[in-house]
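In practice, a research group might receive sequence data for several interacting partners and want a quick structural hypothesis before committing to experiments. The following worked case mirrors that situation: the sequences arrive first, and a predicted assembly follows.
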Amino acid sequence: MANLDGAKTNLIINYLPQTLSDEDFRSMFLSIGPIKSCKIIRDKNTLYSYGFGFVDYQSPGDAARAITTLNGLSMENKRIKVAYARPNDENSKGANLYVCNLPKHYREEELMDQFQKYGSIVQTRVLVNQVTGQSKGVGFVLFHKKCDAESAMADMDGKTPPGGDQPFSIKFADDNAKKVRPPPGSQNFQHPAYSQGPRFPYSGGMGNHGPMRNPGNRFRYNPMGGGAGNFGNNYGNYNNGYGSGMGGSGMMGQQNQGHILFVYNIGYDADEKTLWQLFAPLGTVQKVNVIMDHAKSQCKGYGFVTMTNYDEAQHAIDCLNGYVFNGKQLSVSFKS
DNA sequence: TTATATT
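A structural hypothesis for the assembly, expressed as tokens:
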């Protein structure tokens, strides 16, 4: 719902500790003043905290004071962030532009200069090669309002900026977590589980944890897509969390909450597809999560994979921990 | 090198 007042009273709280209870969350923010509502955003089934929440104060003054008082507060080796929430209306969604063919000398400032005449900009970002620092010629312009983003795109798409030698190509940016694009080098990507050669360190010598054990159970994960190496987009349909080994009668509708793996060094271009490709062939994957730096529209280089069955999770560790993927050595372990 | 930026 669009509410003008909400812009002044409604706060988003980021970087909440996983263990923070709803009660403690409420008390902490009630200490500033009366609130209309508050909630920690959690997984519907498991109640696992997503690490952020909302607090809507009755008075704008208390909201402002909550920011002053509580932003940056240390809680269990994290620092919470308290800021105004974006208004939850259509005009603020989809206001992020993806701009290609930037002149190579462009940084955030030059991008800002070119686009700020269309409206108020939250942030600009230019992607650079992590090693050389060279611009990739690609960036993001996030406007406060979608209509400003639309005007900017209409006017600037196909135009060559002063000092540039190519016309801008402008699109709306994808949702961070949902974009499906082949990871770099995926044309040659060969899953370690299918390898028989020595370049995949964990493909042999693992006894009955060898990668191809129980092969008849391996390919149930992609009803839409075609086969291994050709992944469809409907990842959400792979399974429902009721994995094998759940027994029947005694569970009373509870579901196996799965085993969470920490996967480090997946690269800054990784997305959810990357993790599905790596893990789905090794067992039942409930969900994957690539941790994004939302300010940069980039992966932070790690993610989490929840697998239903313990033995398959251990198998995935055996296969993938230490495996060199896109030139980086993966680290795969049970989440601590 | 162990989480989550829009309900």
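Before designing any experiment, note the following. The first helix of chain A runs from residue 6 to 9. Chain A has a mean pLDDT of 80.
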